[in-house]
């Protein structure tokens, strides 16, 4: 119970501090805007993702459409009936649609599809990597944002959080 109370207290403190420190995006995402992100990921296993999104349509139903790419890796110790230790690497193109909710907050959804390699027990397996993306960006300044994504990919971690930079 003490841990639950402490967690709720920290979450409430963060929610009170973030709106005061976050700054409104003066310039929305225009054609040619580049978003670069780095995220750490968990479940299943641990890993990380680097991505880049390029805005190709800037005013489509109060949002923006991007195309880009991402590279991700994952270390996964699978302890089922057959114990495996997987190391996955995936490089995929991605497409997302982002919708600005407020001047500092946007949600986005999209898809990734490409190639992945799984290394296990001195073997490697090349496969098709695919999955949907759902995420958020909370802008802390004009060009820096907190980024979180759920990426249900068969060659990567599903829950990712990190920073995104707008250029």
Label this structure with key terms.
167 residues; mainly beta; Porin; eight-stranded antiparallel beta barrel; 1 helix; 8 strands
Shape: elongated
The number of helices is: 1
Query: Class by helix and strand content?
Result: mainly beta
Low-confidence stretches: none
Strand order of the largest sheet: 1-2-3-4-5-6-7-8
The oligomeric status of these chains comes to single chain
Termini distance? 44 Å
Radius of gyration: 18 Å
Main CATH class: Mainly Beta
* CATH architectural name: Beta Barrel
N-to-C order of helices and strands: HEEEEEEEE
Mind describing the biggest β-sheet? 8 strands, antiparallel, barrel
Question: How would you describe what is shown here?
Answer:
The chain has 167 residues and is mainly beta. The chain has a single domain (20-166), classed as Beta Barrel (Porin), CATH 2.40.160. The protein is built from one helix and eight strands. The chain has one helix spanning 2-21; strands spanning 34-42, 46-60, 63-79, 83-100, 105-120, 123-139, 144-151, 159-166. Strand 2 and strand 3 form a beta hairpin. The longest helix is centred in the first third of the chain and has 20 residues, at 2-21. The model has no long low-confidence stretch (mean pLDDT 83).
């Amino acid at each position: 119970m003490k841990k639950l109370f402490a967690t709720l207290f920290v979450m409430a403190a963060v929610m009170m501090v973030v709106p005061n420190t976050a700054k409104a995006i003066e310039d929305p995402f225009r054609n040619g805007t580049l978003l670069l992100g780095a995220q750490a990921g968990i479940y299943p296993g641990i890993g990380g993702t680097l991505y880049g999104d390029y805005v190709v349509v800037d005013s489509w139903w109060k949002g923006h459409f991007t195309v880009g790419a991402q590279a991700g890796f994952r270390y996964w110790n699978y302890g089922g009936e057959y114990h495996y230790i997987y190391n996955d690497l995936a490089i995929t193109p991605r497409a997302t649609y982002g919708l600005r909710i407020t001047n500092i907050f946007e949600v986005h959804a999209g898809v990734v599809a490409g190639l992945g390699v799984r290394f296990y027990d001195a073997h490697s397996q090349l496969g098709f990597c695919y999955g949907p993306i759902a995420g958020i960006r909370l802008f802390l300044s004009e060009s820096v944002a907190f980024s979180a994504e759920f990426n249900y990919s068969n060659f990567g971690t599903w829950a990712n959080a990190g920073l995104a930079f707008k250029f």
